[in-house]
Design goal:
By secondary structure, the protein is an all-alpha fold. The chain contains ten helices and no strands. The chain is elongated, with a radius of gyration of 20 Å. The two termini are 37 Å apart.
Length: 237
């Protein structure tokens, strides 16, 4: 993870780690824990800046904001693992804050967290800008797309993202606990791969070779398995 960290794309590694964790642990939800999330989309940033400037507890305010963002980041990454850049930037801000907690650093950290919050809010609305219906479709699209695609190819990839998500959801409805057995997981993986490969439904053949299709299939399987595990944990008693 450390090697060539400025250039390396670690999203595939993160997805594999998530798959390993999902296989290795059994989630037991805490019935006393609250699952409410602070809605950062409703923050009045100018009012918050004004209040922070007058605050006599700036260090505590920064800690509160960190807690809110950490919770939101967990949710955003669970929905879409390609958003690792947000986690990386947050970690860099916190690292700088922990090294020096004087007045100037505290105020600079608050401003950096505000800017990150605004970008997170914009990211949560990006599916609309992309012409997609929801976060789930956006997550699939982000996994499937590649750099340097033409506008027509991007349009095709979006169509594939919508279609493959519908197909996966259909398969999951027809087979209960589809990720609990190796045979049903393998069958779903093959169905996903075939869908992406098919000239009628799949990705642009001139831009995606067989290794691309395999990697995209694995990434989609990891995403769906993680979401299924998360939904199970959130609805178990």
């Amino acid at each position: 993870l450390q090697e060539d960290k400025e250039q390396a794309d670690t999203s595939a590694i993160i997805q594999k780690l998530n798959a390993i964790v999902s296989e290795a642990i059994e989630v037991t939800p805490d019935p006393s824990a609250s699952d409410r999330l602070f809605d950062i989309s409703k923050i009045n940033f100018e009012a918050l800046r004004t209040e922070f400037a007058k605050s006599e507890t700036k260090r505590s305010d920064v800690q509160d904001m960190k807690s809110v963002l950490e919770q939101r980041l967990r949710k955003m990454l669970a929905e879409n693992p390609t958003r690792v850049d947000f986690q990386t930037r947050y970690d860099e801000i916190v690292r700088g804050y922990n090294q020096e907690k004087d007045k100037n650093t505290i105020e600079a950290t608050f401003e950096a967290l505000m800017m990150l919050t605004a970008e997170m809010t914009e990211e949560e609305q990006r599916h609309t800008a992309e012409g997609l219906e929801n976060e789930e479709q956006l997550a699939v699209f982000d996994i499937l797309r590649k750099p340097e695609l033409t506008q027509s190819e991007i349009k095709q990839v979006k169509k594939v993202a919508v279609g493959i998500l519908q197909e996966i959801e259909r398969q999951m409805r027809e087979t209960q606990d589809i990720f609990s057995k190796q045979t049903t997981r393998d069958r779903l993986r093959q169905r996903v791969y075939d869908y992406l490969y098919d000239d009628r439904t799949g990705l642009p053949a001139e831009d995606y070779d067989l290794s691309d299709l395999s990697a995209k299939t694995d990434a989609l399987m990891t995403l769906m398995q993680n979401q299924a595990t998360s939904n199970y944990a959130n609805h178990s008693f």
